[in-house]
Amino acid sequence: xxxxxxxxxxxxxxxxxxxxxxxxxxxxxxxxxxxxxxxxxxxxxxxxxxxxxxxxxxxxxxxxxxxxxxxxxxxxxxxxxxxxxxxxxxxxxxxxxxxxxxxxxxxxxxxxxxxxxxxxxxxxxxxxxxxxxxxxxxxxxxxxxxxxxxxxxxxxxxxxxxxxxxxxxxxxxxxxxxxxxxxxxxxxxxxxxxxxxxxxxxxxx
Length: 205
Prior knowledge:
- By secondary structure, the protein is α/β, with parallel strands linked by helices.
- It has a single domain, classed as 3-Layer(aba) Sandwich (Rossmann fold), CATH 3.40.50.170.
- It has helices at 15-25, 44-50, 66-80, 96-101, 122-129, 164-187; strands at residues 4-10, 30-37, 55-57, 84-87, 106-110, 133-140, 150-157, 191-193, 199-201.
- The protein has a 7-stranded mixed beta sheet with strand order 3-2-1-4-5-6-7, with helices on both faces. Strands 8-9 form a two-stranded antiparallel ribbon.
- The protein is globular, with a radius of gyration of 16 Å.
């Protein structure tokens, strides 16, 4: 199978990037052709360098013009040959500049079961609400925050003795399994966005 070429966007520690790198080493048919960080001090940069992945670090000044920043990212990702842009803890909302360049090919990970608990605090918001089940969502990004077509979801039960910290650990553990699983589906060309803007997963083979 031809490997799916992806570019990864991150802002922090890069644990989901590391999970993808580890799965690639185990045979996931994906090639990470570029990593771009929105922050020069993000530890994910070190993870990319350790894996021999070309990396570019941006800074706050670059994002003063969000569309110009996305145009720069698009240029770098296209030059690297990326077919999909994969957000892994990327704390910037993408603009139409990127969405037009990669239509239904910008993928995001959200630490809750969308459409519930949108926004930057999905884990703590779910915990504070006292729900018994939350989870992880992988979806295509669109022009509305946390609202694009959903590719996959995985539930996470909140136990009576869970703390916010233990719930965060559970969520991250599921993220590290679900994201590579979705990337495999994309590599196998089994993910289709319907006219109704929902996602259909084609059967294997």
